[in-house]
Amino acid sequence: MKKNLFFLTLLSNLIFGQNADLFNNNWYISQMVINNQTTTSPTMQNSIGTSMFTNNGSSYSFNSSYYNSAGSTITFNTVTDSFTRQGGGCTLLVYNGTNAAAAQAYDQKNCDFYFNTTPGSIFNYQIINNGISKTMIITNPTGDKIYYNNSFLGTKDTVIKKSFKIYPNPVKDFLTVENIDKNLNLKIYEMSGKLVYETLTYDKIFRIDVSHFQKGQYILMIENFKPKFFIKD
Question: What's the pTM?
Answer without folding.
Answer: 0.66
